Structure formats: C-alpha cells, structure tokens
Amino acid sequence: MFSGVYTALITPFENGKVDFDSLGKLIDIQCESGVSGIVPCGTTGESPTLSHQEHEEILEFCAKYVKGRLKVLAGTGSNSTEEALRFSKFAKKVGCDGALVVSPYYNKPTQKGLYLHFKTIADNVDIPIVLYNIAARTSVNIEPETIAKLCSDCKNIVGVKEASGSLLQMSIIKSLVTNIELISGDDALTLPVLSIGGIGVISVLSNIIPKEVNALIKFYEVGKIKEAQKIHYKLLPLARAMFIETNPIPVKTTASILGMCKQDLRLPMCSMQDENRLKLIDRLKSFGLIK
C-alpha cells in the first residue's frame, strides 16, 4: 500500500507564515520524480511548531494539489490521543491516503498506554495507519510485541515507519507480523531494511534528490542488487550530511541553497552553525549539486 519512496516533506515558511506557493513547487518536484508519495506535517515538516489550523491547511492543500499524481500519507501524530484522532479524521475527510502516527512524545506512556493510544485512533477513523517508531525523539519505543498486538487487533494498522536504527528490532517485527509494511525511517538504512523485507523509505534525502533515492528502490525491486548497492554508497555521505544538525535544519538549508524555498525555520529550530554549514556545502559540492 505504501511501498517505494515517500518524501518527508519540508514545510516552507516566509515571513513567519506557511509559503503555499513554494509548497506547491516542492510537490511538483516530487510528482515529476517518480516517487510514490509525500508525507506532509511530519518531523521534517516541523509539525510541532505548526498551529492546528496550519496543520489542517497543509494537509488539505497537499491532498488537493497532488490531484492523484501520488499518494499523501499525512502526519497526524500527537502526544494527545484526542488531538491525533482529530488530525487523522481530518486527513480522511480531505482525501489523504493514509495517516502516519508517531508514538506520543514527552509523556512517556507505557506499552499498554501506547497500545490504547493507537487502538483508539484506529477504531475511530477508517484510514490506513502507519505507526511511527522513533524513540530518539519520543523517549519511548513501541516494542515489537506491542506492534504485533496492534496489527492483530486493528486491521487498518498496515505498516510501521521504523526509525529505531535497529535492524534486529525490525527483523523481530517482521518475524511477528509477516505482512506488515516495514518502512525505513532512515535514508542510510534503506537498503539494509529492504534486505530484511522492507518495502521502502520515508525519506528526508528525497526532498533534494528524489530521483536518485527512487532509483535505489527500483533497482532493488527488480533484483539489480549491485546497482542498488552502488547508489546506496553514493548517497550515504549526503544522507549523513542531512543529520549534521537536528533534522530538518540541514535539509531545509540545502533546499534554500538550491533555490527551492526560503531557509526560514521556526524556533526552536534555527540556522546552522557556520562550521556545520561549511561541512554541508562541501558534501553538496562532492555530490555535484552545487559548484
């Protein structure tokens, strides 16, 4: 359902407001690149700093603007179950194809709490749901057994975006739920995740080079493993550069350098330190994106 490359879309701002003109241009780039879909209002989209109104406006804009050219997997997570349910219902209402729901952050629920959180959402909105597991940001891991129980009890929970960095954990998830859509949440691990049964990636890097990220997936899907490996190692230094500082600072800085949108970030996200910006520019030069 959500195989291939899904771009974790940046949210362009100008003068403190969402820049919908630039957002449309970013979506056009993705549509023309051959990727499977976009993920608005996720981590890379600076969702924690969006107002509820902005969040909904962006989801509705994306759903309408793509005009069926690709799928929209809406970021609808929150540390409030009620709020996550509200966003998920709105995503369904405006025509998004699915909801990416991150585990609640800051309040550190137990595994029982996580189960009840996701089950409440799944039981009350008829939309395909992809769990988003990223303990580095949320301080809590959705354990494989919890994911297995959720998939057993909630038929519209179809996948998991795994950003734990643990191939062992991902392998355990696949062993417990063989039909789950395992999606890489880390560009540097896309190829290894494919090798253990993953179906694609929710990518930061594809904001910048969607065709190249898509090519890796396509080569792997047709059994051209060496070609996929070659792209993997070509992309690796740039993928690492996207995390020189906290995401989405480097990717948004890159987008601005390439003239795709303004660099504007919302506090507490801020501009890169000079030494890190120089490192980023060096990686972009090495890849041939700038001279």
Using DSSP, what is the number of strands?
A: 10
Separation of termini?
A: 39 Å
Mean pLDDT: 97
Number of domain modules: 1
Q: What does the overall shape look like?
A: globular
The chain-level structural class is alpha/beta
Main sheet overview: 8 strands, parallel, barrel
SS strand fraction: 5-15%
Determine the CATH superfamily: Aldolase class I
Number of helices: 12
Tell me what the CATH architecture is: Alpha-Beta Barrel
Describe this structure in words.
The protein is α/β, with parallel strands linked by helices. It has helices at 20-33, 52-66, 81-94, 111-124, 135-138, 144-153, 167-176, 190-195, 210-221, 225-241, 249-257, 274-287, and strands spanning 4-8, 13-14, 17-18, 37-39, 71-75, 98-102, 129-133, 157-162, 181-184, 200-203. The chain has an 8-stranded parallel barrel, surrounded by 6 helices. Strands 2-3 form a two-stranded antiparallel sheet. The N and C termini lie far apart (39 Å).
